[in-house]
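Friendly challenge for the regulars: who can give me the structure tokens for this chain first? No prize, just bragging rights.
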Amino acid sequence: MVTADSTAKKEEKSQRMAYDDILLHLGEFGPYQRRIYLLLCLPAIVVALHKLAGVFLQAKAEHRCLLPFESDNATYYGLTEQQMRLSYPWDYLAKGYSACRMYDTNYTEEYFHNNVPANQTVTCDRYVYNTEKYQSTTLMEWDLVCDSAWLKATSDAIFMTGVLLGSLIFGDLSDRFGRRPIFFLSLVIMSVAGVLAGITPDYYSYTFFRMIVGAATSGVFLVAYVIGMEMVGPKKRTFAGVAIQYFFTTGFLLTAGFAYYIKNWRHLQIAYTISGVIFFSYYWFIPESARWLLTKGRKEEARLIVKAAAKENKADLPDDLLDNLLTPTVNEEKMQEAGEKPSLLDLFKHPNLRKKSVILLFLWFVNSMTYYGLSWNTSNLGGGNDYLNFIICGLVEVPAYTFLLMTLDHWGRKVILCGCMLASGTALLLTMFVPNDMVWLTITLAMIGKLAITASYGTIYLFSAEQFPTVIRNVGVGASSMFARFGSILAPYINIMAEIWQPLPLLIFGGCALVSGMLALILPETLNRKLPETIEEGENFGKKSKLKVVKNGELDPVC
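First reply, four minutes later:
Bragging rights claimed.
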């Protein structure tokens, strides 16, 4: 018996296949798609600039307490060794003079002449910063150090909260009003909020505008990514999904380049923002998504876009095939009337599906937390050159993504995901055994961990989408992405633990990655497997077959 719900789903599926069929006639990745895809990849550079800007906008600089007898323009190295010894207690954990406390005394000439440190210490009211590496940062301007260091982490966490909210808000808006207008709306918001963040007078308004920028980056990247993927044929989507990450990596590297030449944090924030203004020119180059137009019944607009693509690709597009493509679709409203729409709760109603879902959510959480944690943690690695450490941290992404392009469709998703997470966890945990005078080895192990987690993060997108049943795939991937944002929100607070013990953040990231790699072994491989479409198939997908003996003595497999 065929129900109205199953009929609607079959009709939707057949029409979705019709659009993929027309891509085969156009060329799955012809000149038209390549041109538009390249243009849509470029905004990922600016998105990376904003997402990683905090590393330099809020860069940590050496500091000490401003002593009562020092003027406002005192320099970091303005004290003699004797004055340092009699002014600041020794911090045995940091192996240097305390950066947050000073002796509680009057600091008279007689005190320094006696050459005996005071008995009591107090916290600093004001600070002197080393401006050799960074001339101006938010940390220096608003004293986000010592007892206020948590405010720096909170600013990064709130930025990522904005990224989370933006993915929810702009994703919904792009489905309602179209990809193209929401792309430009996000670009306007990102530009305005980015400039305001650079001229704001205090920490709280700066953090607020950075949160708005974070939300807007989700709109810019999400919509550009969706438009690009919706016009690429099925066989080219793995390549298209990974290749855009190279542009994000380019932005990663340029973040350090901007910061190296622009030392004032306000000028730097505005420079990052202005670099995105060029994308307003896309108004004359980027079309609306033909897929989206069809779902909204705007057939003639979709026809014009498809014909323009066919002309540029020099493809022969028969009118009957085009007419078949433009057949009215079943919209979501009718689908809702035909039957109950699957929800997130359906992932947790069945034991096997629940187990896989929980593992996938945890994998997304750890991948995002570790990726952003390591990307933002370069100033805690030591080695003297934050810019070089950051650039290396970005460069290791190139072999990571190249490795995925070469192996994902040959080795399988599971072995790459598990192997990369285990490798990352092992490398990061090994940093606890590195002697203090071998900073180069700590940096090397951290970069190996970053390379591996980048490959893992790139794999989890595809792997998780293939694990969830078709009827709930968007819901499952959306929930996974939300958990990933929770991980990136937590990452700054883990990084601040370097104030307690410098290797601690790496050990936390490494331990989580190692556990995640082991849990991923439970998940089934998806390469060259028929993917689940219904909730029932999703529950049975990956279950080990058991054998029972039936009456005639034959073995009957039972899932």
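The chain is about 65% helix and 5% strand. The first strand starts at residue 63 and ends at 65. Your move, everyone else.
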